[in-house]
Amino acid sequence: MAAARRAEVRLPDLTAYEGGLEPDGDYDGLAFTGLDLAGQAGAGARFMDCAVRDCVVDETRLTAARVLDCVLTGIRGVGTDLAGASLRDVEIVDARLGGTQLHGAVLERVLVRGGKIDYPNLRTAKLRDVVFEGCVLNEPDFGGARLERVEFRDCVLTGADFGAARMKDVDLRTVERLEIARGVDALAGAVISTGQLLDLAPVFAAHLGVRVED
Fold first, then answer.
1. Which terms are listed as keywords in the entry (predicted)?
2. How far is CA 121 from each of CA 85, 131, 136, rounded to the nearest angstrom?
3. I need a surface site. Which of 47, 98, 110, 195 has the fewest CB within 10 A?
4. Which residue has the higher pLDDT, 187 or 205?
5. Spatial CA neighbour of 37 closest among 77, 64, 68, 96
6. DSSP per residue over the chain, as a string?
7. Is residue 212 predicted with pLDDT exceeding 90?
8. Rounded distance between C-alpha atoms, residue 147 and residue 106, angstroms
9. How far is residue 129's CA from residue 89's CA, in Å, rounded to a whole number?
């Protein structure tokens, strides 16, 4: 199967930024460090060659934003809204997020490493060359999403919803804990390990209407 092309972000010298966010704002070559961005509105904003470190993003509204060649480290928040956003060549490291809205978003060459993300909404999103590495994804919703060259490396993936998703070259083999709540029929195009097949056997049997009795 084709491997994902990893994001390779090389940031230039950055200028410290201490302001807030504005709709359709243009942020280029800036370092956002330790800022409280909770509740701020940056819909349609563009971030290019930026570093966002240890910032609070509770209820931050970034719908249809464009995030290009950026590194996001240690961000934390609940209800961050990135619906319809575009993320390309982005590294997300040690994030602590809950209820993040990414439905309809486009993720291309994105690395999510470490951290924990609870209840991310990725319905109808498009993911290409995305790597989830060493992170915890709790009840992610990939309903109707398109996943191409997506790797889940040494992750915990619990309560996943893949209903009506379409997959091509999706690698689940090294997921440490794989729980699929819905959409087992959408796994065509994914690869799993023999051990995972045995663990998922009851789910496959239930989907097929097979009753297992000894």
1. Repeat
2. 13, 17, 15
3. 195
4. 187
5. 77
6. -PPPPPP-------EEE-S---TT-EEESEEEES-B-TT-B-TT-EEES-EEES-B-TT-B-TT-EEEEEEEES-EEES-B-TT-EEEEEEEEEEEEES-B-TT-EEEEEEEEEEEEES-B-TT-EEEEEEEES-EEES-B-TT-EEEEEEEES-EEEEEE-TT-EEEEEE-TT-SEEEEEE-GGG-TTEE--HHHHHHHHHHHHHHHT-----
7. no
8. 10
9. 10
Q: Name residue, tokens 């994030």.
A: 95
Which tokens is 98 given? 């809950």
Both tokens assigned to 18? 């201490």
Q: pLDDT at position 207, please?
A: 82
